[in-house]
Each structure stands twice: as structure tokens, then as C-alpha cells.
Design brief:
alpha/beta; nine-stranded mixed beta sheet; six-stranded parallel beta sheet; 14 helices; binds 6-O-phosphono-beta-D-glucopyranose
């Protein structure tokens, strides 16, 4: 049983309006793809609605598909109307947004396409258009090199009339070597200040709040270390399968798709040392420092400290769903992992000996992401009814999504004559404490790019440090035969091997399906 203490600021906080960004022309490579439809265009529309986007911004979609401007606009309109948070496309705001959209057909791997693009941009400039250019690479990562090379050759990476910026989606490369090679190509064309490597988790308000929670409060710092913390658990669980992204996912898998970037970023923010300032350089220096203290695993360590899984058929929210190998576009004997769990270690003074257990998977029982910091047990079971019945130790749960907030689990006196304790939870919830919805991660990050702010983007050395940790796992997995796939049912909480990863040291994952709670009394 748990009781909950609600945390509220003394008055409701209203979100301040966003600052308007520089005017620019945004050129999207991969404009007919899933990411553009589901994330980029809705985020740009959101920015227009909340006043962040300059009224002179224009958006050019590019792609191989032959479409007229009218066809592109009507595709986008349909996608907005069918989306989960459907938009009223008769609304004047939508009509204004639609006017910004145009389309340029072309094959991004054909160098000639870039002369056409350059001519189009020049014609717009001559007609009084924006001098600033923002190139967004939302294609599979294999196209990033020809796109950047094409832009450079056509003289588009430099811009005498204004700025030229480049946004690249994760995964940035496939391993350390390809990431280095891609960085070389990128930095030959664009100066590092013009490059924005996007990891949308860094745009989530709750992820940014990890920094405020850690470095805006003095009470945590003395206990945020190996002397008080037993282990840390980081989860990003999804109920969705691969949807229409089988081609991308077959090449990528859960480790590259989620762990190399989103989950390592959560780990870094939880474990890094305080930055000297809140600017992009200071913050990223500390993240790189932390990543450098995570040593690459040997093949033996990979065997002992990692788990991969793939879902079979099952039920999610009571509905039957097929196994991964039966999804359209997936190979019948695919060995791509849809689940990954890793016991990471940080070799520095603060964290020596503290496991950071990280897990992610598709088609699990619940959609949620959180960081749970588990403190050590009290040395003595003073309030337990039997000497062996220890209380569950304190926990701090940073809920990234949904139900964004923070829960602190601690012991309180159980009502009654006896001096016995019970676990309770003090809970802070974003939805209850602040008015209005936070901007979506993509809207926040697109605005940052338009404003030239790198704080929430990953730097070249940071990306390489991430791959230095992940590449030995990929290499060892490629050499070792995978466990018999599928090894977990859709709608479950993942493979049994992932439970065993913690059970070996007497720990267990928090149940994926359990509500946020802490400090539960063991009866
Ligand atoms: C993306 C991955 O980066 O993040 C997807 O490519 C995943 O596979 C998604 O579904 C999860 O993001 P979010 O914001 O829904 O947690």
C-alpha cells in the first residue's frame, strides 16, 4: 500500500510565449517519409501556432516521388487530418501554413539535383525571399553522405547572404568508424557551428528537467553518488511495433535506434558532473567527460552484461498483434533485435560499482520512459515487524513520459499504536502543476536550430564517444549467435534473460506495467 503527497508550486505557472526565430527557408530531404509526416511538419505547424516561427519562413519538401506542389500540399493536409491529434485543415492557421509549403522532386543521390536546388533557392532570393537556409536530412542515414556532398559541391553549404545550417537525424552512422567518416564528410562541408545532430529526447521538457532537478537543488548532490545510490534503472518501453518502418528498422535494431542516443543521453544527464555554465560548450564537455569514463566492453562482458530480444506474436492492450518476423517488410529469419538491455558501468569516483541498467523494447505492455534512482537500504531494519523484513529502499523516479513528473519514495509512520513504517510517495506532476502543454520535442529543437542554439544537440565528439561504447556490443553480437528469437511475447515486459541480468545481483526491474510508486513496505 502506498500513500501519495502531492507537490504543487504555490501558484499555477503559465508557460511564457516562445521567441520568434530568424526567417529561413527550410529544405527537407525525405519529405515524403514517415518522420516528416509524423514529426517535422506537425512540429513546424505547432511553432507557427505558438508564434515561434517567423512569418517569412518557407518550407521546401524534396524527395524522389514525382509530386506537384498541389499534390504535396494535399498529402500533407490528409496526413494532418488523419493524425492522432487531428488538425482542422479548414482553420485559417492551417491555410497560412499550407502557403509556406512547396515541393521539389529529385533524387538525393544524383549530384545534378543540387544544381536544380541551388537555382531554385537563388530564384527565391532574387524574388525577395529569405537568405538563411536550413537543410534537414530526414532520410535513411545511408543518404546523408551524398546529400552533404551534393550540397557542398553546389556551393550550398556556404552562404554569403545569410546562414546555412544542417540538421542530421540519428542514428548518426552505424558504428564508430562510419560515424567518424560521416563527421569528416559533414565537417568538410559545414563548420561545426552550422551542424545540428538531433536527438529528440533532448528536446523533451522532462529530459531537460533532469538538469534542473539535479543542479537546481542542493539536497541531492551530497547523496548523488556511489555511497548512497545502489543502482539506476533507465527504461524506454514502447507498445508500438515497427509500424511502416521495417526497412529502416531491419538495418538498425533497438541498440542503434534507442540505446546509442536517447538512452545514453538520459544516462549522461543523470550521471554527469555539474557544468560550469548552462551553455552548449560547458554542458557538452561534461557529457563527453562522462561518456569517456564508460569503458568499452570486452566480448566476455558483452555476454554477461547485455541482453537482446525480439518479439513474437502476442496481445497488446487485449488486441492480437503479429510477431516481428511476420511484420510486412521484415525477413522471415530476421535476427534484428527489437529489445535491448545493458548493464552499463561508469568508471569514475562518483559512480564506481553502481550499475546503470538500461532497457528498451518495442511491443512491450506499456508505453513509458523513466529514470529510477534506487538508494541503498537502511543499515538496520528498525521499523520492520520481523528482523529480516527490510523496507524497500528510497527511490527517486524521473518520469519522462507519459504522466510526466517526479516521485520520491520514502518511509512514513503507519497509523496506529505500534511504531511501524509504511512506504509512501511524494509526487510532482507536470500536468497538475503547470498550465498548458509543453511544446513537442521537435518544435523545441527546430526553434533552437533556427535560433542557432546548440545546447540541446549532440556534438561530434559526443556522438563518437557514444559509438565507442556501443560498437563493441554490436561487434560481439554480430559474432555470437543470437538467442533463439522470438524470445518475448508482444505485450509482455521483455525476455526472461533481461530479468536474469538483474536477478544475479539480487535486484529486479521495476515492473513495466506498475504505476509510478516508491518506498513500498515489504510486509
Ligand atoms: C525514435 C526511434 O528515435 O524514437 C523510434 O527511431 C522510437 O523507433 C521513437 O519509436 C520513440 O520516441 P518517443 O518520443 O515516442 O519516446
Amino acid at each position: 500500500m502506498t500513500a501519495t503527497v502531492k507537490g504543487r508550486p504555490s501558484e499555477a505557472i503559465v508557460r511564457p510565449p516562445l521567441c520568434e526565430a530568424d526567417a529561413c527557408t527550410l529544405i527537407i530531404f525525405g519529405a515524403t517519409g514517415d518522420l516528416t509526416r509524423r514529426k517535422l511538419l506537425p512540429a513546424l505547424y505547432e511553432l507557427q501556432c505558438v508564434g515561434g516561427m517567423n512569418s517569412r519562413c518557407e518550407i521546401i519538401g524534396t524527395g524522389r516521388t514525382a509530386l506537384s506542389e498541389a499534390q504535396f500540399r494535399s498529402r500533407v493536409r490528409e496526413a494532418f487530418a488523419e493524425a492522432k491529434d487531428a488538425v482542422d485543415t479548414n482553420d485559417a492557421r492551417w491555410k497560412g501554413f499550407e502557403q509556406r509549403l512547396s515541393y521539389l522532386q529529385g533524387d538525393p543521390s544524383n549530384p545534378e539535383f543540387y544544381s536544380t536546388l541551388a537555382a531554385d533557392l537563388e530564384a527565391r532570393l532574387q524574388a525577395g525571399g529569405n537568405p538563411n537556409r536550413l537543410f534537414y536530412v530526414a532520410t535513411p542515414s545511408s543518404l546523408a553522405r551524398p546529400i552533404i556532398g551534393g550540397l557542398a559541391k553546389a556551393g550550398l553549404a556556404k552562404n554569403d547572404a545569410g546562414w546555412s545550417r544542417l540538421v542530421i537525424e540519428k542514428p548518426f552512422g552505424r558504428d564508430l568508424e562510419s560515424a567518424r567518416e560521416l563527421s569528416r564528410v559533414v565537417n568538410e562541408a559545414f563548420a561545426e557551428e552550422a551542424v545540428f545532430r538531433i536527438d529528440h529526447y533532448l528536446g523533451k521538457e522532462t529530459v531537460q528537467n533532469i538538469l534542473v532537478f539535479r543542479f537546481g537543488n542542493t539536497m541531492l548532490e551530497p547523496v548523488w553518488n556511489r555511497n548512497y545510490i545502489d543502482h539506476v534503472e533507465i527504461t524506454a518501453a514502447e507498445t508500438l511495433g515497427v509500424e511502416s518502418r521495417a526497412a529502416f528498422y531491419e538495418e538498425t535494431g533497438a541498440l542503434r535506434d534507442m540505446v546509442t542516443n536517447h538512452l545514453l543521453q538520459l544516462l549522461t544527464l543523470t550521471a554527469m558532473e555539474p557544468p560550469v555554465a548552462l551553455d552548449a560548450a560547458a554542458l557538452r564537455d561534461q557529457k563527453v567527460q562522462l561518456l569517456r569514463s564508460m569503458h568499452p566492453m570486452t566480448a566476455d562482458e558483452v555476454r554477461q552484461r547485455t541482453v537482446r530480444g525480439q518479439y513474437g506474436a502476442g496481445n497488446v492492450f487485449g488486441l492480437p498483434v503479429p510477431g516481428y518476423r511476420d511484420e510486412p517488410g521484415v525477413q522471415k529469419l530476421s535476427s534484428t533485435e527489437t529489445y535491448a538491455a545493458v548493464d552499463f558501468r561508469i568508471d569514475n569516483w562518483r559512480w564506481e560499482g553502481v550499475p546503470f541498467y538500461v532497457r528498451t523494447g518495442k511491443r512491450l505492455s506499456l508505453q513509458h520512459a523513466e529514470v529510477v534512482v534506487h538508494f541503498k537500504r537502511t543499515p538496520q531494519a528498525l521499523f520492520a515487524h520481523a528482523p529480516q523484513a527490510h523496507l524497500e529502499p528510497n527511490q527517486i523516479t524521473l518520469r519522462i513520459q507519459p504522466d510526466e513528473g517526479i516521485t520520491i519514495g520514502f518511509a512514513a509512520k503507519r497509523p496506529g499504536d505500534e511504531l511501524r513504517s509504511i512506504g509512501v510517495a511524494a509526487d510532482f506532476s507536470y500536468a497538475e502543476s503547470f498550465e498548458g502543454k509543453p511544446p513537442s520535442a521537435y518544435a523545441t529543437l527546430l526553434l533552437d536550430v533556427m535560433q542557432g542554439d546548440h545546447t540541446r544537440f549532440t556534438r561530434r565528439d559526443e556522438v563518437e564517444a557514444e559509438w565507442r561504447i556501443i560498437t563493441p556490443i554490436l561487434e560481439a553480437w554480430a559474432k555470437q549467435p543470437p538467442p533463439p528469437f522470438p524470445n518475448y511475447a508482444a505485450g509482455s515486459d521483455g525476455p526472461a534473460e533481461a530479468r536474469a541480468l538483474l536477478e544475479r545481483s539480487g535486484r529486479r526491474w521495476r515492473e513495466v506495467a506498475s504505476p509510478a510508486e516508491g518506498g513500498k513496505a515489504v510486509e
